[in-house]
Design brief:
CATH architecture of the largest domain: 3-Layer(bba) Sandwich
Distance between the termini: 70 Å
CATH class of the largest domain: Alpha Beta
Bound molecules: flavin-adenine dinucleotide, 1,4-dihydronicotinamide adenine dinucleotide
Radius of gyration: 24 Å
Number of strands: 22
């Protein structure tokens, strides 16, 4: 049994924990990582962001070759799907990415302990093997919890990861299901629903609310829902699943109107449960260590990511804020910089979000609904991709850019994009807003022509005064 001492022991090697460990090492700390998976990278690299984006890309190409080339004068025979190869490639992308983190850990001299981390008290962490026995004990000047999140279960719909799957099983299906029912029209439901629809599944998405993708600006959501429906996703809004019965032939779901009423039955070969994620705190020994949780079950931290116990910190999905990989990483950097005596800070108000469907949806800052609720006087500038020459040349004219700016000061308060390259384009808005740009500032910045980013400039001009090309 090793008994070693470290400046920092990190529990959980997701994008929060592994980035924090690297930054801490760069700042001169002796760092240990405790991770219960056999690979590094957490949810994001192993069963989240990376495998889902690999399948989104493969399924997008499959659809594009099948449907979208004729207009360019390219005729190809109908594509056939080598499903095993597509899944193998996904595995290779994940493997290369998690190995990349291993390499970075070696480079930064971070010691990894494979096992479950349990905090015995401030300054002491035990590493438990799969049998629950203590393998190692670590002395730690500082402890950082980065244990992430897990899928929220739905009562009456037990996940078996075969016929009723979470996102993890939904990325590991052994064949394309004929009928897929997705419960929850959030980001996972729409991304994975799109993957399987493109590969040939008949996909129905059951959503409790009267809208898809809560949190996205209403106007964008309406356009988004229309685009996804046109592609063939079916939506059952204002509905809840109350029961699932599994048989050899598939799954029978009982669905009721959310507000109550007559039940109906939906049949599926596979059901994906994607109704949100909850913080993962099991087995960490938080009670014994005296680490407090918030009312919503997340670990309570102060502005410097310190928990209720001095010397124990927490970041990422397990604390408040958006459950996103890049947010977890920024938390991690700010937290260890503060531990090192620097002034780490994360602006959670300017964390961008992206839905990697086609069109993509990306946004940063406030929605119109949030500005109305806060009684902020605002103005809107919009620019459609149909008016953008590069989008026309690319054949990707679906969607628009929407810039929201303060009516009095012209400061940009929110940027919302639905379009083929929204996820890449949003970075410009993040930079501008971090520097408190006005719509006029963005409108006066020289953008390369022809690029789809000119649509942001034009939308900013529209918010400030007048667009040139509309
Ligand atoms: P995690 O990545 O969850 O890592 C936590 C790690 O801690 C895990 O490896 C876990 O095994 C380990 N752990 C937990 N408890 C212990 C313990 N006691 N001892 C040792 N180890 C422990 N976000 C994006 O920004 N972009 C995306 O495109 C995106 N796509 C996603 C797709 C899917 C299908 C899913 C499920 C999520 C996606 N997310 C995406 C969300 C993203 O994965 C999370 O926000 C991110 O992983 C959170 O990072 P984290 O470091 O806080 O935790
Ligand atoms: P989500 O919170 O995005 O969406 C869950 C949806 O399920 C909501 O629309 C909600 O109204 C609905 N819902 C809740 N209970 C329901 C019920 N009983 N019946 C029907 N619908 C119900 O959660 P999701 O999609 O599971 O994703 C979890 C998190 O993972 C996201 O919030 C995001 O933080 C992260 N993620 C990010 C991605 C990205 O950045 N591209 C991709 C995938 C996940």
């Amino acid at each position: 049994m090793a008994e070693a001492s470290f400046d920092l022991v990190v529990i959980g090697a997701g994008p929060g924990g592994y980035v924090a460990a690297i930054r801490a090492s760069q700042l001169g700390m002796k760092v240990a990582m405790v991770e219960k998976r056999t690979t590094l990278g957490g949810t994001c690299l192993n069963v989240g962001c990376i495998p889902s984006k690999a399948l989104l890309q493969s399924s997008h190409l499959f659809e594009e070759v099948g449907h979208d080339l004729a207009v360019h004068g390219i005729t190809v025979a109908a594509p056939t799907l080598d499903f095993a190869q597509m899944m193998k490639r996904k595995g290779e992308v994940v493997g290369a990415t998690t190995k990349g983190v291993e390499f970075l850990f070696k480079k930064n001299k971070i010691t990894t302990f494979q096992g479950a981390g349990r905090i015995d008290k401030a300054g002491a962490v035990s590493v438990l093997g799969a049998d629950g026995a203590v393998k190692d004990t670590l002395a730690a000047k500082n402890i950082l919890i980065a244990s992430g999140s897990e899928v929220t279960p739905l009562p009456g719909v037990a996940i078996d990861e075969k016929k009723i799957v979470s996102s993890t099983g939904g990325l590991e299906l052994t064949e394309v299901p004929k009928r897929l029912v997705v419960i929850g029209a959030g980001i996972i439901g729409l991304e994975l629903g799109s993957v399987w629809r493109r590969l040939g599944s008949d996909v129905t998405v059951v959503e409790f609310l009267d809208r898809i993708a809560p949190g996205i600006d209403d106007e964008i959501t309406k356009h988004f829902q229309r685009a996804l429906a046109k592609q063939g996703l079916k939506f059952k809004l204002g509905s809840k699943v109350t029961k699932a019965e599994t048989a050899a032939s598939g799954v029978k779901l009982t669905v009721e109107p959310a507000k109550g009423g007559a039940a109906e039955t939906l049949e599926a070969d596979v059901v994906l449960v994607a109704i949100g994620r909850r913080p993962f705190v099991e087995g960490l020994g938080l009670d014994k260590a005296g680490v407090k949780l918030t009312q919503r079950g997340r670990i309570e931290v102060d502005a410097h990511f310190q928990t209720s116990v001095p010397g124990i910190y927490a970041i990422g999905d397990v604390i408040d804020g958006p459950m996103l990989a890049h947010k977890a990483s920024e938390d991690g950097v700010a937290c260890v910089e503060t531990i090192a005596g620097q002034k780490g800070h994360v602006n959670w108000d300017l964390v961008p979000s992206v839905v990697y469907t086609q069109p993509e949806v990306a946004w940063v800052g406030k929605t119109e609904e949030q500005l109305k609720a806060a009684a902020v006087a605002y103005k809107i500038g919009k620019y459609p991709f149909t008016a953008d020459p590069r989008s026309r040349a690319n054949g990707t004219t679906e969607g628009f850019v929407k810039v929201l700016a303060d009516k009095g000061t012209d400061k940009v308060l929110g940027v919302h994009i639905i379009g083929a390259e929204a996820g890449t384009m949003i970075a410009e808005a993040c930079v501008a807003m971090e520097f408190s740009a006005s719509a006029e500032d963005i409108g006066r910045i020289c953008h390369a022509h022809p690029t789809v980013s000119e649509a942001i400039k034009e939308a900013a001009l529209a918010a400030w005064d007048k667009p040139i090309h509309l």
